[in-house]
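Exercise 7b. Backbone tokens:
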């Protein structure tokens, strides 16, 4: 529900956008669009591309991928941070590899099922790593790097927010250029 104009204003103000997505293809499309908006915004802060499962009960989790190309299916167990695109990206050189088995849920009586990200999508909150495995197969290395760097960008965003709050407490509200009006107090 965010327009490109709104996203540009957020980026101009040093913020970051955390999109809701429907599936891997949708996430790739959103990344491309938001990266372009960020570039055009002239933002002086690093590009951040949030990703997660905080749906607030209002959005669905990511759906299964459609039309998976040959050789692009997620195979369990899978490893993140080593192999494939990860080996070619300097940001991951010092990151230890993590191996993930296929998620399974079992009741005390032993009944249950296994989950596969290609067939079930991001069926539950524990499948975030599986979604990254999809992205490792589908996304360009630049997107994986942007995604990886986003946690630090988010922390820096909050540090700037705290600094701004301290400045407001010291000197009062000052409306910066391009801002329509200050936030209510």
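Sequence design result:
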């Amino acid at each position: 529900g965010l327009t490109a104009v709104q996203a540009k204003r957020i980026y101009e103000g040093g913020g970051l956008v955390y999109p809701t997505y429907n599936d891997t293809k949708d996430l790739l499309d959103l990344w491309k669009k938001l990266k372009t908006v960020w570039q055009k915004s002239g933002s002086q802060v690093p590009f951040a591309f949030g990703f997660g499962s905080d749906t607030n009960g209002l959005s669905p989790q990511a759906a299964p991928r459609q039309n998976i190309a040959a050789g692009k299916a997620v195979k369990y167990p899978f490893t993140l941070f080593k192999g494939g695109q990860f080996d070619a990206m300097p940001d991951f050189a010092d990151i230890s590899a993590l191996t993930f088995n296929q998620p399974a849920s079992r009741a005390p009586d032993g009944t249950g099922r296994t989950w596969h990200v290609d067939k079930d999508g991001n069926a539950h909150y524990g499948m975030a790593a599986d979604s990254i495995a999809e992205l490792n197969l589908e996304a360009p290395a630049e997107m994986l790097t942007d995604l990886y760097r986003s946690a630090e960008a988010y922390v820096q965003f909050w540090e700037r927010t705290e600094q701004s709050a301290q400045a407001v407490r010291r000197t009062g509200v000052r409306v910066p250029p391009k801002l329509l009006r200050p936030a209510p107090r």
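Instructor comment: Helices lie at 4-12, 24-41, 117-120, 128-138, 141-171. The longest helix spans residues 141-171.
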